[in-house]
Amino acid sequence: MIAPPSTPHDTNGRSWIAVASAEHVRLGRAGGFMQVCHGKAAPLRRIRPGDRVAYYSPSAIFRGKDRLQAFTAIGVVRAGEPYRFDMGGGFLPFRRDVDWLTAAEAPIQPLLATLDFTGGVRNWGYQLRFGLFAITDHDWHLIAGAMRASLPA
């Protein structure tokens, strides 16, 4: 995992959940970027530098049948705009750069009753189908705590 960012970030940013398999999240952590919704630009344009993002991974492997259901990365979006990246084979997804925090993966199950976006909701996974959605600061801090994230000063 990448160490916490060395420069201060805007603490007034919004908080987000992004959704991807753990295998794809690991690629993003290693490369210092995030990518959502199969590389679409529009969702990434909603995110601003200084915003906080936590990745939820329903599975370990893309299109896998396993049920990982865990938060797998957490970080702060760097300055800059979404940009295209050539992954070869004609696939040019959009990405944003992220300072990933040192953190452990954390299952969502123990948090379901306390997260604002899942509390009291029987079909809590519905929002996750959108691939990216805003969450409350309360939720982001609960997730960061569950992941034992090293938060920037």
Automatic annotation (TrEMBL):
It holds the Pfam family EVE. This is UPF0310 protein HND93_33360. SUPFAM superfamilies: PUA domain-like. Belongs to the UPF0310 family. It comes from Azospirillum oleiclasticum. Residues 16-144 form the EVE domain. HAMAP family: UPF0310 (MF_00771).
